[in-house]
Design a protein that fits this description.
The chain is of the alpha/beta class. It has helices at about 60-70, 95-105, 120-130, 150-160, 175-180, 200-215, 225-240, and strands spanning about 1-5, 20-25, 30, 35-40, 45-50, 75-85, 85-95, 135-140, 165-170, 185, 195-200, 215-220, 240-245, 255-260, 275, 280. It folds into two domains: about 1-40 and about 240-280, no CATH class; about 45-240, von Willebrand factor, type A domain (Rossmann fold, 3-Layer(aba) Sandwich), CATH 3.40.50.410. It has a six-stranded mixed β-sheet, sandwiched between helices. Strands 4-13-1-15 form a four-stranded antiparallel β-sheet. A four-stranded antiparallel β-sheet has the order 3-2-14-16. β6 (about 75-85) and β7 (about 85-95) form a beta hairpin. α1 runs antiparallel to α2 (about 95-105) and α3 (about 120-130) packs parallel to α4 (about 150-160). It is globular and about 55 Å long.
Protein backbone atom coordinates (compact mmCIF):
# COMPACT_ATOMS: atom_id res chain seq x y z
CA UNK A 1 0.00 0.00 0.00
CA UNK A 2 1.22 3.55 -0.74
CA UNK A 3 2.28 5.79 2.16
CA UNK A 4 3.21 9.48 1.94
CA UNK A 5 5.05 11.29 4.75
CA UNK A 6 5.17 15.10 4.84
CA UNK A 7 6.49 17.68 7.29
CA UNK A 8 4.69 20.70 8.72
CA UNK A 9 5.29 22.61 5.45
CA UNK A 10 3.71 19.88 3.31
CA UNK A 11 7.06 18.75 1.86
CA UNK A 12 7.78 15.07 1.30
CA UNK A 13 10.07 13.51 3.91
CA UNK A 14 12.71 11.41 2.16
CA UNK A 15 15.35 9.05 3.52
CA UNK A 16 13.10 6.95 5.77
CA UNK A 17 13.87 3.24 6.20
CA UNK A 18 11.77 0.19 6.96
CA UNK A 19 12.58 0.48 10.67
CA UNK A 20 11.04 3.98 10.76
CA UNK A 21 7.56 2.60 10.11
CA UNK A 22 5.17 0.87 12.49
CA UNK A 23 2.06 -0.65 10.97
CA UNK A 24 -1.04 -1.84 12.82
CA UNK A 25 -4.18 -3.57 11.60
CA UNK A 26 -7.13 -3.17 13.97
CA UNK A 27 -4.65 -2.03 16.62
CA UNK A 28 -2.40 -5.09 16.32
CA UNK A 29 1.13 -4.46 15.05
CA UNK A 30 2.05 -6.29 11.86
CA UNK A 31 5.54 -6.94 10.47
CA UNK A 32 6.37 -4.91 7.37
CA UNK A 33 7.29 -7.64 4.89
CA UNK A 34 7.83 -5.37 1.91
CA UNK A 35 9.36 -1.90 1.83
CA UNK A 36 10.39 0.42 -0.98
CA UNK A 37 11.04 4.14 -1.30
CA UNK A 38 9.75 5.04 -4.74
CA UNK A 39 10.76 8.13 -6.67
CA UNK A 40 9.67 7.96 -10.26
CA UNK A 41 7.99 10.10 -12.94
CA UNK A 42 4.37 10.87 -12.15
CA UNK A 43 1.46 9.24 -13.94
CA UNK A 44 -1.96 10.60 -13.15
CA UNK A 45 -5.46 10.68 -14.58
CA UNK A 46 -6.79 14.24 -14.47
CA UNK A 47 -10.60 14.17 -14.05
CA UNK A 48 -12.26 17.56 -14.61
CA UNK A 49 -15.86 18.46 -13.78
CA UNK A 50 -17.51 20.14 -16.80
CA UNK A 51 -21.26 20.07 -16.17
CA UNK A 52 -23.41 23.14 -16.96
CA UNK A 53 -24.21 23.41 -13.26
CA UNK A 54 -20.70 24.83 -12.80
CA UNK A 55 -20.31 26.82 -16.02
CA UNK A 56 -19.74 30.01 -14.00
CA UNK A 57 -16.61 28.37 -12.61
CA UNK A 58 -15.30 27.22 -16.00
CA UNK A 59 -12.51 29.79 -16.05
CA UNK A 60 -11.37 28.59 -12.64
CA UNK A 61 -11.45 24.97 -13.83
CA UNK A 62 -9.31 25.61 -16.89
CA UNK A 63 -6.89 27.85 -15.02
CA UNK A 64 -6.47 25.24 -12.28
CA UNK A 65 -5.87 22.45 -14.77
CA UNK A 66 -3.31 24.42 -16.77
CA UNK A 67 -1.43 25.47 -13.67
CA UNK A 68 -1.38 21.87 -12.51
CA UNK A 69 0.17 20.75 -15.80
CA UNK A 70 2.74 23.56 -15.59
CA UNK A 71 3.91 22.25 -12.21
CA UNK A 72 4.70 18.75 -13.50
CA UNK A 73 8.08 17.57 -14.77
CA UNK A 74 9.08 16.82 -18.33
CA UNK A 75 8.81 13.05 -17.81
CA UNK A 76 5.49 13.12 -15.96
CA UNK A 77 2.57 11.58 -17.87
CA UNK A 78 -1.03 12.75 -17.70
CA UNK A 79 -4.31 11.45 -19.07
CA UNK A 80 -7.39 13.68 -19.16
CA UNK A 81 -11.09 12.94 -18.76
CA UNK A 82 -14.14 15.08 -18.09
CA UNK A 83 -17.37 14.32 -16.30
CA UNK A 84 -20.86 15.59 -15.58
CA UNK A 85 -23.49 12.88 -15.92
CA UNK A 86 -20.98 10.36 -17.33
CA UNK A 87 -17.17 10.32 -17.61
CA UNK A 88 -15.66 11.03 -21.01
CA UNK A 89 -12.04 10.10 -21.88
CA UNK A 90 -10.34 13.04 -23.58
CA UNK A 91 -6.64 12.15 -23.84
CA UNK A 92 -4.60 9.02 -23.20
CA UNK A 93 -1.44 9.16 -21.08
CA UNK A 94 1.18 11.45 -22.56
CA UNK A 95 4.22 13.45 -21.43
CA UNK A 96 3.49 16.10 -24.08
CA UNK A 97 2.33 19.11 -22.06
CA UNK A 98 1.33 21.03 -25.20
CA UNK A 99 -0.96 18.19 -26.22
CA UNK A 100 -2.42 18.09 -22.72
CA UNK A 101 -3.03 21.85 -22.71
CA UNK A 102 -4.71 21.63 -26.12
CA UNK A 103 -7.00 18.89 -24.82
CA UNK A 104 -7.97 21.06 -21.86
CA UNK A 105 -8.76 23.96 -24.18
CA UNK A 106 -11.33 21.76 -25.94
CA UNK A 107 -13.33 21.09 -22.77
CA UNK A 108 -16.87 22.43 -23.05
CA UNK A 109 -18.52 23.60 -19.84
CA UNK A 110 -21.84 24.50 -21.43
CA UNK A 111 -22.98 21.19 -22.88
CA UNK A 112 -24.13 17.99 -21.24
CA UNK A 113 -26.69 17.11 -18.61
CA UNK A 114 -27.50 19.15 -15.54
CA UNK A 115 -27.08 16.08 -13.35
CA UNK A 116 -23.71 15.62 -11.64
CA UNK A 117 -22.91 11.97 -11.04
CA UNK A 118 -19.59 12.61 -9.30
CA UNK A 119 -19.54 9.37 -7.26
CA UNK A 120 -20.29 7.10 -10.23
CA UNK A 121 -17.90 8.96 -12.52
CA UNK A 122 -15.07 8.74 -10.00
CA UNK A 123 -15.83 5.04 -9.58
CA UNK A 124 -15.48 4.54 -13.32
CA UNK A 125 -12.17 6.45 -13.28
CA UNK A 126 -10.98 4.10 -10.50
CA UNK A 127 -11.80 1.15 -12.78
CA UNK A 128 -9.82 2.75 -15.60
CA UNK A 129 -6.81 3.37 -13.35
CA UNK A 130 -6.91 -0.11 -11.84
CA UNK A 131 -6.23 -1.56 -15.28
CA UNK A 132 -2.88 0.29 -15.48
CA UNK A 133 0.34 -1.10 -14.09
CA UNK A 134 2.38 0.79 -11.51
CA UNK A 135 1.37 3.67 -9.28
CA UNK A 136 -2.27 4.62 -9.74
CA UNK A 137 -3.34 8.21 -9.01
CA UNK A 138 -6.41 10.26 -9.91
CA UNK A 139 -6.33 14.07 -9.60
CA UNK A 140 -9.88 15.46 -9.51
CA UNK A 141 -10.77 19.10 -10.20
CA UNK A 142 -14.28 19.22 -8.83
CA UNK A 143 -16.91 21.00 -6.79
CA UNK A 144 -17.57 17.63 -5.16
CA UNK A 145 -21.31 18.09 -5.70
CA UNK A 146 -23.29 14.95 -6.49
CA UNK A 147 -26.98 14.53 -7.31
CA UNK A 148 -27.08 10.79 -8.02
CA UNK A 149 -29.19 9.85 -4.98
CA UNK A 150 -29.19 6.94 -2.55
CA UNK A 151 -26.68 4.10 -2.64
CA UNK A 152 -24.09 5.63 -4.97
CA UNK A 153 -21.85 6.89 -2.17
CA UNK A 154 -21.73 3.44 -0.54
CA UNK A 155 -20.85 1.85 -3.89
CA UNK A 156 -17.99 4.30 -4.39
CA UNK A 157 -16.58 3.71 -0.89
CA UNK A 158 -16.62 -0.05 -1.40
CA UNK A 159 -14.79 0.34 -4.71
CA UNK A 160 -12.18 2.63 -3.14
CA UNK A 161 -11.59 0.14 -0.31
CA UNK A 162 -10.95 -2.64 -2.83
CA UNK A 163 -8.62 -0.62 -5.05
CA UNK A 164 -5.09 0.71 -4.65
CA UNK A 165 -5.79 4.06 -6.30
CA UNK A 166 -4.83 7.29 -4.54
CA UNK A 167 -7.22 10.21 -5.11
CA UNK A 168 -6.04 13.83 -4.85
CA UNK A 169 -8.90 16.34 -4.99
CA UNK A 170 -8.71 20.06 -5.73
CA UNK A 171 -12.02 21.56 -4.59
CA UNK A 172 -13.27 24.35 -6.83
CA UNK A 173 -15.72 27.07 -5.94
CA UNK A 174 -13.57 29.33 -3.80
CA UNK A 175 -15.50 31.37 -1.28
CA UNK A 176 -18.80 29.84 -2.45
CA UNK A 177 -17.82 26.76 -0.47
CA UNK A 178 -18.17 28.78 2.74
CA UNK A 179 -21.23 30.80 1.78
CA UNK A 180 -23.89 28.16 2.40
CA UNK A 181 -25.54 29.08 -0.91
CA UNK A 182 -27.14 26.69 -3.39
CA UNK A 183 -28.06 24.10 -0.75
CA UNK A 184 -30.71 21.65 -1.83
CA UNK A 185 -31.98 18.65 0.06
CA UNK A 186 -31.86 15.36 -1.86
CA UNK A 187 -34.79 13.30 -0.70
CA UNK A 188 -33.44 10.08 -2.18
CA UNK A 189 -30.14 10.17 -0.30
CA UNK A 190 -29.18 7.80 2.48
CA UNK A 191 -28.94 9.13 6.02
CA UNK A 192 -25.32 9.72 6.97
CA UNK A 193 -24.26 9.91 3.32
CA UNK A 194 -22.05 12.99 2.70
CA UNK A 195 -24.15 13.52 -0.41
CA UNK A 196 -27.48 13.48 1.43
CA UNK A 197 -27.57 17.26 1.01
CA UNK A 198 -26.48 18.83 -2.26
CA UNK A 199 -24.32 21.58 -0.82
CA UNK A 200 -20.70 22.60 -0.63
CA UNK A 201 -20.66 21.62 3.05
CA UNK A 202 -21.60 18.02 2.27
CA UNK A 203 -19.20 17.92 -0.69
CA UNK A 204 -16.35 19.00 1.59
CA UNK A 205 -17.09 16.01 3.81
CA UNK A 206 -17.23 13.69 0.80
CA UNK A 207 -13.86 14.88 -0.57
CA UNK A 208 -12.21 14.49 2.84
CA UNK A 209 -13.61 10.96 3.18
CA UNK A 210 -12.41 10.01 -0.30
CA UNK A 211 -8.92 11.20 0.62
CA UNK A 212 -8.99 9.18 3.84
CA UNK A 213 -10.13 6.01 2.07
CA UNK A 214 -7.37 6.19 -0.55
CA UNK A 215 -4.46 7.70 1.37
CA UNK A 216 -4.74 10.87 -0.70
CA UNK A 217 -5.39 14.52 0.06
CA UNK A 218 -8.23 16.99 -0.43
CA UNK A 219 -7.18 20.57 -1.13
CA UNK A 220 -9.55 23.51 -0.60
CA UNK A 221 -7.77 26.49 -2.20
CA UNK A 222 -9.27 29.97 -1.96
CA UNK A 223 -6.51 32.23 -3.33
CA UNK A 224 -3.95 32.02 -6.12
CA UNK A 225 -1.31 31.28 -3.50
CA UNK A 226 -3.42 28.42 -2.14
CA UNK A 227 -3.64 26.94 -5.63
CA UNK A 228 0.13 27.24 -6.11
CA UNK A 229 0.72 25.44 -2.81
CA UNK A 230 -1.71 22.69 -3.81
CA UNK A 231 -0.02 22.23 -7.21
CA UNK A 232 3.42 22.00 -5.59
CA UNK A 233 2.28 19.40 -3.08
CA UNK A 234 0.44 17.38 -5.73
CA UNK A 235 3.51 17.29 -7.98
CA UNK A 236 5.58 16.02 -5.04
CA UNK A 237 3.03 13.41 -4.01
CA UNK A 238 2.74 12.14 -7.57
CA UNK A 239 6.48 11.47 -7.77
CA UNK A 240 7.36 10.32 -4.26
CA UNK A 241 5.91 7.73 -1.94
CA UNK A 242 6.82 4.79 0.24
CA UNK A 243 5.35 1.36 -0.36
CA UNK A 244 4.67 -0.96 2.57
CA UNK A 245 3.53 -4.54 2.30
CA UNK A 246 2.08 -6.88 4.92
CA UNK A 247 0.27 -10.20 4.96
CA UNK A 248 -3.34 -10.00 6.21
CA UNK A 249 -3.86 -12.26 9.19
CA UNK A 250 -7.52 -12.81 8.36
CA UNK A 251 -9.49 -13.65 5.23
CA UNK A 252 -13.01 -12.87 6.33
CA UNK A 253 -14.24 -10.47 3.64
CA UNK A 254 -14.62 -7.67 6.23
CA UNK A 255 -13.18 -4.17 6.47
CA UNK A 256 -10.12 -3.74 8.71
CA UNK A 257 -8.53 -0.47 9.85
CA UNK A 258 -4.91 0.40 9.14
CA UNK A 259 -2.72 2.69 11.25
CA UNK A 260 0.80 3.72 10.22
CA UNK A 261 3.22 5.68 12.42
CA UNK A 262 6.69 7.02 11.71
CA UNK A 263 9.31 6.77 14.45
CA UNK A 264 13.02 7.47 14.80
CA UNK A 265 13.74 3.74 14.53
CA UNK A 266 13.98 3.40 18.31
CA UNK A 267 10.28 3.69 19.06
CA UNK A 268 9.92 7.47 19.51
CA UNK A 269 7.22 8.92 17.25
CA UNK A 270 8.07 11.69 14.79
CA UNK A 271 5.83 14.73 14.26
CA UNK A 272 5.13 14.05 10.60
CA UNK A 273 1.86 13.77 8.72
CA UNK A 274 1.47 10.19 7.55
CA UNK A 275 -1.12 9.52 4.87
CA UNK A 276 -2.21 6.05 3.90
CA UNK A 277 -5.39 4.13 3.40
CA UNK A 278 -8.02 4.15 6.13
CA UNK A 279 -8.23 0.37 5.82
CA UNK A 280 -8.85 -2.50 3.46
CA UNK A 281 -11.39 -5.19 2.63
CA UNK A 282 -9.79 -8.52 3.45
CA UNK A 283 -10.29 -11.23 0.84
CA UNK A 284 -12.83 -13.89 1.71
CA UNK A 285 -11.60 -17.40 2.42
Amino acid sequence: MPVTVTNEHGDFVSGLKRENFRLRVDGVEQPVKYFAAEEEPAQALLLVETGPAVYLLSHEHVLAARELLAGLGADDRVAIASYSETPQPILSFTADKRQSAAALAQLNFWLGMAKLNFYDCLGTAVDWSASDAGKQTIVVLTTGLDSSGAGHWEQLVEKLQQSNVMVLSVALGGELRDSGKHQKKNGNATAGDPGSEISFASSNTALENIAAETGGYAFFPRTDRDFETAYRRIATLLRHEYSLGFEPAVHDGHFHEIQVEVSDGKGARRAYRVNTRRGFLAPAS
